[in-house]
Amino acid sequence: MTTEKKLVAAAAALLDAGGEQAVTLRAVGRAAGVSHNAPYKHFKNRDALLCAVAAADLAEMAAALKQVRQSSAKPAKKLTQALKGVIDYNAKHPARYQLLLNDPRFATLEGDLKQAAYSHFDEFDSIVRECQAAGELPDVAHITLSGLLFATVHGLISLEASGRMKREKGLAGVVPSLELMVKLLALAKKGSQPAS
Amino acid sequence: MTTEKKLVAAAAALLDAGGEQAVTLRAVGRAAGVSHNAPYKHFKNRDALLCAVAAADLAEMAAALKQVRQSSAKPAKKLTQALKGVIDYNAKHPARYQLLLNDPRFATLEGDLKQAAYSHFDEFDSIVRECQAAGELPDVAHITLSGLLFATVHGLISLEASGRMKREKGLAGVVPSLELMVKLLALAKKGSQPAS
DNA sequence: ACCTGAACACCGTTCAAGT
DNA sequence: ACCTGAACACCGTTCAAGT
User: Fold this and answer.
1) Which chain D positions come under 7 Å from a protein C-beta?
2) How many CB pairs under 8 A join A and B?
3) Which of A62, B31, B43, B112 fits B49 for a cystine, CB–CB 3.0-4.6 Å?
């Protein structure tokens, strides 16, 4: 494994183990078997290393979505699996999820991250279109609908992770809330064709 | 103004000016006219100071929501205003918004923050119930529906702020996406009563 | 009760130097 | 081309001491 990949893997492992504050260049170097400033030979700075982790994760999520899309499941099932994939990713790697989808530091998408973000969204959008074609989702602009669905699952995950959506308030969890969302969208489809 | 309030105000101003990384205790102390470790006499540590800023902001947002709820506008209009308030808050104070709704550090809500979170959600939920009563939103569990709506606006804002929802992809902005969401929920209401 | 200045450990980053 | 060790500036936190 090249040193660059070792550094990215070490940073990802440290994120899982102790959150972003655990990712010091000294710890990364130690875990990768190099000195604490070797990373500067491969990345501009610490943020660039974290950005590389995010790009790799997003590419991985895109690949997982592609698997789902190419499966033989019914469209509605594919959508559920796609949404569940996002939820599971957050459950397994909360700090990396936060980096991936909630960190404004990499708002100007560049290079690998931009590429990964595009292919990830395209996969998701394709599944949404399949659902529309199958009559499971309303016939509105598919890109906007995809953005809306993804924003909803992301918002639910985010609010729960940040403790703002506690069950104490009587709130449902992420999965039941999403199920309601999908059910309401199906009803909207029905409501838009009263003559059917 | 008490020193404690000065510290919170200074931290909030620094967040607006330069993001979280600009909020060093030395800078906070300087802005409040005290030494760099005076904050420790009022807050356990830096995180506790940031948490106090979040609690104050959430209380402010709750007060703004209360104004909307008590206004004479129609329910649908109140909902739009409530959602717009969240969007505007992020536009004016992105770093504080991030702290308020996306920071997992304060996931264990305590004291002021917990109180503020509850009253904020209650106000929002009341408006959602008014919309249901007026037939503008589907008759599903109001708390879940409120959570879903808030998660959607938060997810849209978050993804846009973190650069993951660029227009380049053909995506609509936060406001048009939300308008679609509300429109689809109205259609769902219609689809659930085919006999009306 | 509230504050200060010095000190400590730690970190990101830079630089001169090594192979 | 890739890496290292020393050094710098900065920060959160602690502590002894001041009023």
Assistant:
1) 2-6, 10-15
2) 170
3) B43
Question: A-chain residues within 8 Å CB-CB of B138?
Answer: 184, 187
The rounded mean pLDDT for chain B is 94
A37 touches strand D (CB under 7 A): yes
Q: Which of B32, B11, B31 is nearest to B21 (CA)?
A: B11
- pLDDT (tens digit, 9 = 90+) per residue, B145-192? 999 999 999 999 999 999 999 887 889 999 999 999 999 999 998 888
Nearest by CB: B155 against A107, A155, A188: A155
Work out the average pLDDT over B22-35: 96
Contact list, B165 vs chain A (CB under 8 Å): 147, 151
Hey, are the CB atoms on B180 and A140 less than 8 Å from each other? yes
Q: Which nucleotide is nearest to A49 (CA to C1')?
A: C12
Per-residue pLDDT tens digits for B46-82: 999 999 999 999 999 999 999 999 999 999 999 999 9
| B152: chain A residues, CB-CB within 8 Å | 148, 151-152, 155
> Average of pLDDT values for A103-108?
89
Buried b (16+ CB within 10 A) or exposed e, A121-144: bebbbbbbbbbbeeebbbebebbb
Burial grade of A78 (CB within 10 A; 0-12, 13-18, 19 or more)? buried
Residue of B nearest to A113 (CA): B164
pTM of the model: 0.95
Average pLDDT, chain A: 94
Q: How confident is the model at residue A22 (pLDDT cuts 50, 70, 90)?
A: very high
CB contact under 8 A, B185 and A180: no
